[in-house]
Amino acid sequence: MSESTNSETQSEQARVCLTPEQVDAIRDAATDTGAKYLRARNETIIALLADTGLRNEVLTQLTTEMYLRDAGELYLPTNIQKQPGNGRDDWPRSHHLDLDVDGTIGTQRSLNTYLDNRWKDSSYLFPSRQSDQMTTRSVRNVVKRLAHEADIQPFRYDESGEFGRGDPDDVHPHVFRHSLAYRLLHDRDRDDNHFDIYFVRNRLRHASLQTTLRKYDHFRTI
C-alpha cells in the first residue's frame, strides 16, 4: 500500500468513541440538568443516537410519523438520508430500523415517555424552544453541554494505534455513531456472534462494506 493511500485510510478511521458507561452518564446528565421541560427530549436524543447511530442531519428531520410505535421501528425515507458520493443511484433506500437492537438502551421506553408528555405539539420528533424543528447546531450544542455536565473523557484512537483519553469538547453527535459500532463489535455476551462487521454495516446503513471496514475494522482488536 502506498504511503498516500495508507494516510487516506487512517484519516477515515473513527478516532473517538464512548463506552456504554459514558453514554449512560450523559443520559443521566440529560435527566438531571437543564430546563425541566427539555430534559426528556434531550435524554431521548442521546438514547436514539446511541441505539441507532443516526447522523445528526437525519435525526433533526425525523417526524413523529416516522416512529412506528407498535412495531418498535423507525422508518427512514430515502429523502432524509445521506446521499452517496460514488455515483450510485440505488442508495440510500428507504429503511425500517429496529430499535433497542441489543436490549441495552431502552430507546422505545424513552421515546414513548417523551412523546406522551411532550411540551410542544410538533410534526417533527424533536422541536426546539424557538421552532418546531431542532437544527443540527442545536443538537450539537445539547450534546456538548451534556458531555461537559458529565465530565466525559472519551477514548481517543491516535494514528500510532494507541488509545488515550480526550475531553468533553471531543464529544459530538457523530461520536455516538462510532460508539455504536464499538459497542456492537465488543458484545461478547452473545453466543451467536450476531453483531459482526456485517451487522454494523447494515445498522449504520453504509452503502459499502468497505466503508465500514475502513472506519471500524480497528475497533475489533482494541
TrEMBL record:
GO-annotated biological processes: DNA integration; DNA recombination
Top-rank lineage group of the source organism: Archaea
GO MF assignments: DNA binding
Alphabetical list of SUPFAM superfamilies matching this protein: DNA breaking-rejoining enzymes (SSF56349)
Record carries keyword Signal: no
Domain Tyr recombinase: start-end pairs: 13-222
Keywords (A to Z) from UniProt: DNA integration, DNA recombination, DNA-binding
Protein name: Integrase/recombinase XerD
Species whose genome carries this gene: Halorubrum aquaticum
